[in-house]
Amino acid sequence: MTxxxxxxxxVLKTGAVTGAGLALPTIFTSRASAFTNEPTGSTVTFGFNxxxxxxxxxxxxDELRAQELAVEHLNGMGDGGMLQTxxxxxxxxxxxxxxxxxxxxxxxxxxxxxxxxxxxxxIEKDGVVMINGGSSSGVAVAVQGLCQEAGIIxxxxxxxxxxxxxxxxxxxxFRHFFNAYMSGAALAPVLEKAYGTDRRAYHLTADxxxxxxxxxxxxxxxxxxxxxxxxxxxxxxxxxxFSSYITPVLQSGADVLILNHYGxxxxxxxxxxxxxxxxxxxxxxxxxxxxxxxxxxxxxxxxGDNIKGVYGSMNWNWQLQDPGTKAFVKSFGxxxxxxxxxxxxxxxxQTLLYADAVARAGSFNPCAVAExxxxxxxxxxxxxxxxxxxEDHQCFKDVLVMKGAENPTTKFxxxxxxxxxxxxxxxxxxxxxxxxxxxASLGECNDGA
Amino acid sequence: xFGLNAKDTRFLLIVVFLxxxxxxxxxxxxxxxxxxxxxxxxxxxMQKFAIFGIFAIGFNILFGLTGYLSFGHAAFLGVGSYTVxxxxxxxxxxxxxxxVLSIIISALFALVIGFISLRRSGIYxxxxxxxxxxxxxxxAYSVLTPITNGETGLQVYTNDPQVLxxxxxxxxxxxxxxxxxxxxxxxxGGWLFTFNIGYYFCAIIAILAFYISLRIxxxxxxxxxxxxxxxxxxxxxxxxxxxxxxxxxxxxSGMYAGLAGGLLAAMDPLAGAERMQWTASGEVVLMTIxxxxxxxxxxxxxxxxxxxxxxxxxKINDGILHxxxxxxxxxxxxxxVTLVHPFVGKGWHLTLGILxxxxxxxxxxGLVEGFQRISRLFRSKRxxxxxxxxxxxxxxxxxxxxxx
Lengths: 449, 404
Description:
- Chain B: The chain crosses the membrane at residues 45-63, 94-116, 123-144, 197-217, 244-264, 284-309, 350-371.
- Chain B: It is a multi-pass membrane protein.
- The complex is a heterodimer of chains A (449) and B (404).
- Chain A is α/β, with parallel strands linked by helices.
- Chain A contains 13 helices and 17 strands.
- Chain A folds into 2 domains: 43-178 and 318-397, Rossmann fold (3-Layer(aba) Sandwich); 181-314, 3-Layer(aba) Sandwich (Rossmann fold), CATH 3.40.50.2300.
- Chain A is globular.
- Chain B folds into 2 domains: 43-291, no CATH class; 316-380, no CATH class.
- Chain B has a two-stranded antiparallel sheet with strand order 1-6. In chain B, strands 2-3 form a two-stranded antiparallel sheet.
């Protein structure tokens, strides 16, 4: 069947041709540039990598709106939004360093692979200098690693896991959003005030990295109050039906249920817990309570009435009354007819922060930008005085403790601000054991040269 | 040449040429033109073309030849990726040990899964493989987090052992110093061509994979597999035990998938659990059917087609649409944008779905059949002799060339 006529001459000939073909590309010289995607024309391109399909598509859409708005404000269109209230005044609405800002978008699909593919195409094809956005910690960590290797700046979007600026921290990556540890630290005093120090907590935790860090953080802060942890049950992501997990809660003798869930999972588990009548029960002589450590507007909307009186935490909320928030809510509302979500806020702020850092550094070189962002203190962005800590590139600012509103008037104010936890209370050491300990390091800055 | 007949050799050479010239062929539009949006000649996408081409070629050895529809091939893809990243973590960034091991480990995996699943055929086989793949996915996603790093994905940390790492070793995947990420850009009068080392590495492996698959198609073994597809019961009645053949085909295609997964991690040092999800298994089925199951070139075409849609169409947003139609009056512009909007950007799945439906309905043989029809159209024009050129005497036809 096989007709092998492999001759020595044939092999040599083919080898030579293949070799020549392979060697061909190397005779050209590459185009010289000082760092990855150095903008040479009159424009500079940002990459907005958000989930446009999949479970967090709504969130991604809101991030995209905010980022478009930020680009308009940078280019001097619209009313300028937070540029008016931002404490740094280097940005004047004429683009960045005289270059007009453009942007390209990608779809992360909330999958690490797809997110990296989208990010790579933006870096390799569209020549972006920074990537902003995203709505999952897994994606954030994956894309952050990619940007580090490629030599551009990554501004993480909604990512709440401790790992993003903990054991997975990178020199080229920055996070404005708060994290699981901060949620725990901010919630604990409020929970103490509302529910006392003698409580028995039962955790339902989403079975993946974010869930683990969230659970670890909230368990540590509640145990510091004197609470006991009865049990921690891992639930599969996207389970839909949580009834089999909720039934054993009452038999366990616990009087608080902590739902370390996010997105659709949280909507389902909370709704089912309320339908099972957990919140009407008396256990150990106390009212049974439910806590949701991380809130978002879209989740609150989805959970409807079930969320009333349930405590949780947020990075920012449009109902705050500082000038920065007001300016942002105004321009976002006028443009899109709805208040921005807290992930939209983070993405908007990060676009401005990046632009400002470039302007202050006088260069798009990622190492110069990273240097300008490290230890940067600013105000007027809706969170009060904020610092980008140099050791782990995490933003430190006040954290909001929220509660499901008893009498919401519109679908946008289903959450109310209970307390603005001051920044000092949520701070931690850069080598905290929950954040990779002493081993975690940012590594070296990479500009791709 | 290479143990092939003249026709196959010509076919192979065409494939080699197309593969090596991909960086030029995929950049048909100059950078400054508005059509540059449709250029696909950037390293990541070209690498994906080659890698998913390998994946689909391997899948086709099982599905195209034996007719066994596996819905679990993504498991091998994931196993390959995890193997390579672990080799980075333990040894060094050299991709060779990882790639070799990824083929071996996925072969072992395929042997186990195949041994169990192949006890059944048809839909039961598909369901069994799907179950195994979903099991692997869930294990990787949460249960085996210490090995796979769960949802975040396995990546290399600075404090990993990396025992073979020298002081000057590259800190990203390389083959004895040839760094996969590096590429040479050539600017030729507005056209920008990127020649990427990683792509050429994948391309050479893809050509090898294609050549091996060609040899399998033409071998007695391949003939046996086709006989199984045609009528397995009859094979059994003649006293032939077909299971070793199907198992061999399953393991070979598992090895292809493992290699593809390994290459994914060789181009980009990260392994995520989503690679094992059922959607990834479904994707390779789509690729094969879209391109043409049972043909040699079909799966590669299908893979390229789907990856192109995923990466190019998904990036067209409203801003770009507006700039395309900007020359029209405002009303018409907005109307057209609203019309096109659902099919691009986040709606790229819709475009892909419609195209898939069209192909399945009108071209059951896949894209390859489309090309065949076109070429027949041209060929038949040349032989316009007589009113009944379509063989009025019904001579027996030779079997169509499988490579066509």
